[in-house]
Amino acid sequence: MTKERRLPLKIIRGLQWYLGLPDEFLKNSNTKLDESFKFVEMEDGLVGLSVDTDERMLSQLQKNAVKIGGYDFREGSSAPLAFPLFPSKGLRLKRKISNWLDMFQNLPYVSPYDDSSHLDPCSDVSEKRVVGVLHELLSLFVDHSAERKKLFCLRTHFGLPQKFYKAFQRIPTFSTSH
Residue 131 in contact with residue 171, Cβ under 8 Å? Predict the structure, then answer.
């Protein structure tokens, strides 16, 4: 989401099927929402959905790590957190790529919900955040998958770098996606 933690409804509408939202959910702003969300006016007269909470939000990966390993994700902590990889049976990683992937997995994890403006967009940590954003999105989707082109419209709203699509090519988890 943007730094203001809001997303235009027209973007959400494009992902509605993937999110499992009923048609009437986005049709009127009188829809009863969880108290963490609210409808807001955005620039250019657009209506958006905003996160309205001061609580620190944890990604699905962080929630799983807390449940399994007793991690404590306080504000500003950046513990290394590995993404679960489910490569296809035929995928064999060459040693060089395997070593890079091990190093990548050991980089600090930056939550998709944390401010990333301080990250160098060309760094490996920034790339790991991109993978984290994609991982979080896919965890929210009903089938845990989506067409790549449906995700491209989220780039500016989630503060992703211009060439974020490269994560699909470099990370085995995403390399088999459409």
Answer: yes
- State the burial class of residue 117 (Cβ atoms within 10 Å of its Cβ: 0-12, 13-18, 19+): exposed
Report the alpha-carbon angle 178-113-86, nearest 5.
35
Q: What is the mean pLDDT of each run of 10 residues along the chain (178 residues)?
A: 73 88 72 75 85 78 80 65 72 73 89 84 88 88 83 83 77 51
Hey, is 6 helix, strand or coil? strand
**Residue 175 shares a structural domain with residue 143:** yes
Q: Are 19 and 61 in contact (CB under 8 A)?
A: no
Run of H or E residues at 39: strand 37-41
CA distance 143 to 20: 9
Nearest-angstrom CA–CA distance, 141 and 148 = 13
123 shares a domain with 96: yes
**What does pTM read for this prediction?**
0.77
β-pair type (6-8, 47-51): antiparallel
